[in-house]
Structures are given as C-alpha cells and as structure tokens.
C-alpha cells in the first residue's frame, strides 16, 4: 500500500467524524437562531361594512372587538351613511365598484333587486345560516325558493311609549282596547297635556310609526295582510278603511301645528313631559335612555278594537349582505358565519337595546326597556310592516301610497274611505292581486 493511501485511510474516520460534528453544531445553532427570530407577522384582512345606522358606531365597534378576540387577523371598519341617503349611495357604490365588503340589507324587495342585479353573493353554504334561523326569519333576504343572500340581522318592534309618572298622577291604566285608548287620550287632553307627541311634519313617521303600528290590529295581523297579497281582499275593503279610520280617531290628540313638527320635535315633546304618549319604535330606546327624562317611562302595545285579537308590528328590519365583487370574500364569510352564532345574538341584543336578534334561541336581554318591548310579543300575533312585502316592487310604490294617504287622513284632506280607495287604485296599476281581488 502506498504511503499516501495508507495516510488517507488513517485519517478518513476521524475526518468524517469531525465533519458530522460540525454539521450537527450548525444545525443546532441554526435552530436556535430560528427559534429566537420573531415569527412572520400574520397578514390582517381589512373589511368595510356599510349601514344606515349612523348612531351605532360605538356599539358596532364593541361587536367588532369581540369578533377580533376570536379572529385577530380580520378587522372590520364601520362606515355608515345617513338613513335617508343610504339606498341611493349604496346603489351608486355598487354600480361604481366602490361598495363595502359587507352592508346592511333592507328586507324584502329592496334587497331582492340587489341580488337579482348580481350585487349580492349567495349564502346558502354559509355555516349556521340554515340551522340558527327559521325559514320565516330568512325569508326577507332569500329567493322565493329559499336560497339566502343575506344573514338575518335585526328586528325592531313598534309600540306606545308612555310617561308612567303622568299615568299615575292622572289615575290612568294601560288601555286594553282601542276604545279605551281613545278615552285615555281624552283624559290626558282634558288635563291640559298633549296626549300624543306624533306629528306629520315628517310624513314617514305617520306612515311607519303610527299607521303601520296600528294597522295589524285592524286588518287581522299577518293572516289579514297575506289575504291582500293573495288577492283575497281588495285594499279598500272595510278592514283597511277601519285602519285608516284609526288615524282619523287620533288626529284630535296630536300637538297643535303638528304639520310643522318634525320627528326630533316630537321626541322632545315627549322627553320634556309635554306629551304623555308617543307611538314609536324600539330603536329609540338608546336615545331616550341617553336623554334621561325627569320621569319614568315604559311601553305598551297598541290595543285592538274591543272583541278583536291583538297583534303587534315586530318588523324584520335588516339583514347583512356580502358584496359579490369583494376581493375579500373568505374573510367576509368568516364574519358572517360568526353573526349566525348565539354568542353574536346575545352581544347584539345587549349592545344595541331595541334591536333584536333573529336567532332561534332568543338571548337573555339585560336592558329593562328592551325586555319590556320584547315582552309585548307574548300573547300577540306578530307581523312586519304592512307595505314592506311585495307592495314596494312596482310604481306607484305601495309605501308612498300608504304614506300619502295616512298623512292626508291625519290632516283631514281625505276620509278613511278615500284613503283606502287611493291605495287600491294605485296598486291595481301594477300589482296583479289588486287587479283581481275579491270585492267586498
């Protein structure tokens, strides 16, 4: 064997050992360096949410914070638009490609049109949407065959706010019939106070929080409303005339110069104790609580005529939709799936008192005024606002027809019969059931 070969043989094993040791050291040192290095930052997805509720920024941010504790990689920014401008602004955003990732959906036809134009992503496969909500609560944001395009979000209730201190001072009981309600209003007027703070300076308030508040008791709740939608009744039948008649009954008990008073003026009349009652909605609870009036107040349900079953307007008001053009659909669906959970329902009901979650399992509410409103549903049939389903899908719009007629009745320029006739004649121009309805 040559000397060189013999030398290599002697050196081979120790050299290999040294190399292996060096590699092992390098691996250990490398692992230590990696362990000491900060982990790469998790990418945050930023979502925007459109809404018509400019008063709810603080409360919605509280909901978003709860979501972030579970999903720290997704941030949601609340970007509301004033309610009167919301539909127009959202339409322009969707057409221009600048709409939010998520946005509030009005119920029934308004959101249906957005879906039919391709602006809303279908949500049939969203976890929780099928088993956390009933078919009835999904319906305002679903196709006719039940395919959802919005997550049921909030309901609002209608009722009568009243000054409890004034009721006690005047010896008044909560009226259980419409006739007793009018007697109560007469006693308040005789005492030198304004019975009802409502006014027609903002026409929508007479329509939404007075006429739609009272109508279910006069037309027979949901079953009665569906009879009109099916053409089994004409919109100028005796029941509808009686509903407009209730507005005529109230007119003497509204404030003087009520045609000049706006929504905020009416609220102040009640909060200042000048008016004893206010037909309104549960969405005003936070405002009333923040105003801290110098009297105790609560709510009762508008009563039906004597001998008639009681109903109340519990309106399925808002859903949440996903922009079909959003590049962040995965993160947006994660948020929407969280909205279907009972945990979200409880947070919503308690962060936003007066806005009620639509989940099957109704959460416990800690706000006493919200509980009082929700309790009005017990023992009464519930239904959505009269003009919302189908009647807003053509021209002339059923909502504007009822609003114009309601304001005219309150102000004495139409009789209840003329108001019902105007509704029937307007709808029969395009609404097939009104064209073919059964005459009384």
What does this structure look like?
With 440 residues, this protein is an alpha/beta fold. It folds into 2 domains: 45-154 and 316-371, 3-Layer(aba) Sandwich (D-Maltodextrin-Binding Protein, domain 2); 157-314 and 382-435, 3-Layer(aba) Sandwich (D-Maltodextrin-Binding Protein, domain 2). It is 47% helix and 14% strand. The chain has helices at 3-36, 57-70, 83-96, 109-116, 135-138, 164-169, 178-190, 203-219, 221-229, 238-250, 263-271, 285-291, 329-339, 342-351, 368-375, 398-410, 416-427, 432-435, and strands at 45-51, 74-80, 102-106, 151-163, 194-196, 275-281, 297-300, 311-322, 356-357, 381-383. Strands 1, 2, 3, 4, 5, 6, 7, 8, 9 and 10 form a 10-stranded mixed beta sheet that branches. The longest helix is centred in the first third of the chain and has 34 residues, at 3-36. 44% of the residues are buried. The model is unreliable at 1-37 (pLDDT under 50).
Keywords for this structure?
single chain, 440 residues, alpha/beta, D-Maltodextrin-Binding Protein, domain 2, 2 domains, 10-stranded mixed β-sheet, 47% helix, 14% strand, globular
Determine and state the CATH class of the largest domain: Alpha Beta
Q: How many domains make up the coordinates? A: 2
**What is the distance, rounded to the nearest whole angstrom, between the alpha carbons of the first and last residues?**
124 Å
Order of helices and strands: HEHEHEHHEHHEHHHHEHEEHHEHEHHH
**What Rg is obtained from the alpha carbons, in whole angstroms?**
30 Å
**Can you tell me the residue ranges where pLDDT is under 50 for at least 5 consecutive residues?**
1-37
Helix/strand/pairing category: alpha/beta
Tally of contiguous helical segments: 18
- CATH architecture classification of the largest domain: 3-Layer(aba) Sandwich
The CATH topology of the largest domain: D-Maltodextrin-Binding Protein, domain 2
Relative strand content = 5-15%
Superfamily at the CATH H level of the largest domain?
Answer: Periplasmic binding protein-like II
**Biggest β-sheet strands, sense, barrel:** 10 strands, mixed
Average pLDDT figure: 92
Shape: globular
Number of strands: 10
Q: Tell me roughly what share of residues is in helical segments.
A: 40-55%
């Amino acid at each position: 064997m040559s000397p060189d070969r013999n030398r290599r043989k002697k050196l081979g094993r120790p050299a290999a050992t040294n190399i292996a040791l060096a590699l092992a050291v390098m691996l250990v040192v490398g692992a230590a360096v990696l362990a000491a290095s900060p982990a790469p930052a998790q990418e945050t997805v930023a979502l925007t949410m459109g809404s018509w509720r400019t008063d709810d920024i603080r409360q919605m941010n509280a909901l978003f914070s709860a979501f972030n504790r579970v999903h720290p990689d997704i941030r949601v920014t609340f970007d509301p638009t004033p309610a009167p401008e919301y539909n127009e602004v959202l339409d322009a955003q969707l057409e221009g490609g600048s709409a939010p990732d998520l946005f509030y959906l009005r119920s029934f036809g308004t959101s249906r049109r957005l879906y039919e134009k391709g602006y809303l992503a279908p949500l049939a496969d969203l976890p929780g949407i099928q088993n956390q909500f009933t078919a009835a609560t999904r319906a305002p944001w679903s196709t006719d065959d039940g395919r959802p395009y919005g997550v049921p979000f909030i309901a609002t209730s209608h009722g009568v706010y009243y000054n409890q201190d004034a009721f006690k001072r005047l010896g008044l009981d909560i009226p259980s019939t419409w006739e007793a309600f009018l007697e109560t209003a007469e006693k308040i007027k005789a005492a030198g106070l304004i019975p009802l703070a409502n006014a027609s300076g903002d026409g929508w308030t007479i329509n939404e929080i007075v006429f739609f508040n009272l109508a279910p008791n006069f037309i027979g709740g949901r079953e009665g409303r569906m009879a009109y939608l099916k053409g089994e009744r004409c919109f100028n039948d005796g029941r509808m005339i009686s509903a407009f008649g209730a507005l005529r009954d109230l007119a003497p008990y509204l404030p003087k110069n009520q045609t000049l008073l706006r929504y905020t003026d009416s609220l102040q009349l009640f909060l200042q104790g000048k008016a004893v009652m206010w037909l309104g909605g549960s969405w005003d609870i936070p405002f009333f609580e923040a105003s801290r009036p110098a009297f105790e107040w609560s709510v009762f349900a508008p009563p039906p005529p004597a001998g008639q079953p009681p109903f109340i307007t519990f309106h399925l008001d808002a859903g949440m939709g996903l922009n079909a053009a959003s590049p962040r659909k995965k993160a947006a669906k994660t948020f929407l799936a969280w909205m279907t959970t009972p945990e979200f329902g409880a947070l919503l009901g308690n962060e936003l008192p007066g806005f009620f979650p639509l989940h099957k399992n109704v959460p416990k509410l800690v706000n006493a005024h919200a509980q009082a409103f929700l309790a009005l549903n017990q023992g009464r049939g519930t239904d959505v606002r009269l003009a919302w389903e189908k009647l807003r899908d053509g021209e002339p719009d059923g909502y504007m027809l009822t609003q114009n007629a309601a304001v005219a009745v309150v102000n004495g320029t139409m009789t209840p019969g003329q108001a019902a006739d105007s509704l029937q004649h307007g709808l029969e121009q395009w609404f097939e059931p009104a064209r073919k309805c059964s005459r009384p």
